[in-house]
């Protein structure tokens, strides 16, 4: 009797389980998110080059998509033993990112028994998995032949699937372990760091065509953009990631770019023509980001603090001297404009015996460029010239004799400005 | 159309015999600026009425290339040129007339036509091994910006490095089609065109002459996480140079003639990146003539999470000059600058950076008693034994940028304080493009500076700029900017800037 009750309970439990399982079948089939319960995709399933907690590929290169299809890759590949090429045969022949590689409904019809021959009048299959709502997210009975648009915009890059598949580069090498996922999203599109797994080759020795040049993958702008890499897209502006030559274009990049450009200007030239650089570095219009407000009035303070920044755009003995002479502040300004007012601190400080801030030797030794931006060499020679030329005040640093002979042999001109050849020849050997 | 293609090709090669997909562009930027420059003494006031216009011509794909997709990396030949006309119609003509001795300023010139660059560039020849450039061109590397007329050959080897060699003439101010500013030659020599000047007039102003130059570089290629470039350059001065600054003929030599070194430098720059961890950039410049290290820099970036970069910076700088310059021989000490900075990408559209730095200046502070009697030349080792000491400057920056597709908002502020003075302030700027054609922009700034050497030149300045433009094509627009600046030194100043940018492409 007890056994009979046991068997009855077991049968009820079985019926109940089957009923529950049937009722929740669409949910357990998955395909609405990459992982069950929308769990985070493990990094090992992501495309090569992905970081932990990866933010996804570039929005500019791979614009946002609208995935309105439920599809479970893990089910189709793992349990039903389908292969990538069964649904994506175009990936073996495509030479352009304009090609559509997602399967048409006709491919699904083989198993789902639907009929997508006439997209204006699609016939659903007979069972549950043949119905429109089974795959088309958001579809409701009564929607007729209308399903939500499925949008995968063209990638803004140069890419040939055919070239890669022909070299036996399997899908996972670029897209990660899609077979472990249910829905494959934009996150499975390649990462630039992953591309560099192969594309780390100079032009002359690339493995096949896996060259490292930017335009191997990035679109050129053509003459409209100076034939450099195209950077302006409807989705935004293409900028280098922080890990590429340490060149993230942050708000202060204008102050820091020399560290990148000075090391590898060819890298910059991929996206910028000379004009972009010369408009500031050899420009004729004051860039306000660098020289704000009436910078003309405040520039002396800045120049004394960081004159090497001035010299990245201005040559002191031409740009600076010319203007200083014209406005009469130069010691050698023409008589018609030269000011009689003293420009420098009082004589007692400027030329006094104590070298302190404000003394001309103190200022010159810490920042010679400030002197060079206003004075011509005659101004200095009057006092610092040697016997018979100037007043003889020595300006040479300690240990100067050890190298001046070599310098005089290579170019004696500056020596002779202050010294008679006969005077220094015996000393500078 | 074929004629147009041929005309573009003929810019470089007269042999253009068949039509192919030559792309070309013609660009022009024209700017007029109206403002005045006032001497800190009140007079003179220089009225500036400036006109600057450039004409750029480029032709791409000058040799036929297979149109097959995926074959973009075939040999490539390009021609690019840009000329500039820069004139100040507000200048006093006497400033460029040598006989007007009370106003003449050597080297100041108006209406100079300047060939900024004009070259043919070939890339990826001989299966990617050979590249070249012929004509007036720039070289940019650890040694700085530089321009020369000549040829450059680049050999990219299969061993992840490339060799580059170049030679020609340095572009110098005062030479034909080179403008007057001498932007590309080493500093320290006042040089230009002495035509019409008396030999005794401004003897410090040297006649520009041809400057033969050569250089080479060794550079890594192909690897994205590591890059290094070792570069060497040598430039010669030629011709006559006035030596005696008080050219009365009593002292000899009055002029020095002959080929002599102008600059000889070695530079190296490298960068490395460790994907998830951070990266570093570093480099140095050594000046062989001055026998000194001119520049050292290093930066280390550490990635703190996905959105934050923390950086440490170091800079060493000691000026060096053209070997014709006397200033190479002056006692001078380097600046050492140490800084730290943080970049925070708050959102994909909003980024903020903040940083600070300390700059150490080295100098002597004691009286040099050996120089007490200026009747004869002093001992050349007179400064020896003086204890160098340091003074410090410091400062900080704060920048933020918000960027949407049609809108840019930016804020920049900085503070720098030191023994020579302080400069503190900031500005906010915005630009918005409306319906792809209309551009409105604005800027306000408030800056205060304290000049410790000239306290009477300290001031508080308020500035505002309002601009508007009409963009008729993506790279073509016409606009006006109206700038107002107010400070107590010179009162209210106005600067009006009108510009026209044109780009015609095929």
| Oligomer status | heterodimer
Number of strands of chain B: 26
Mean pLDDT of chain A: 86
Mean pLDDT of chain B: 87
Tell the overall outline of chain A: elongated
What's the end-to-end separation of chain B, in Å? Answer: 10 Å
Please count the helical segments of chain B: 2
Structure description:
- The complex is a heterodimer of chains A (429) and B (506).
- Chain A is mostly helical and 429 residues long.
- Chain A has helices spanning 2-23, 25-28, 73-79, 84-87, 105-112, 132-135, 161-166, 172-175, 192-195, 253-256, 258-261, 265-269, 274-281, 295-305, 307-310, 316-326, 347-350, 360-366, 368-372, 377-384, 401-410, 413-418, 421-424; strands at residues 232-233, 236-237.
- Chain A is 36% helix and 1% strand.
- Chain B has 506 residues and is an all-beta fold.
- In chain B, 3% of the residues lie in helices and 58% in strands.
- Chain B is built from 2 helices and 26 strands.
- Chain B is globular and about 60 Å long.
- Chain B starts with a helix and ends with a strand.
- The model of chain B is unreliable at 5-18 and 368-385 (pLDDT under 50).
- The interface between A and B is large, with 164 and 208 residues.
Condensed summary:
The complex is a heterodimer of chains A (429) and B (506). Chain A is mostly helical. In chain A, 36% of the residues lie in helices and 1% in strands.
Name a few traits of the molecule.
heterodimer, A: 429 residues, mainly alpha, two-stranded antiparallel ribbon, B: 506 residues, mainly beta, two-stranded parallel sheet, 26 strands
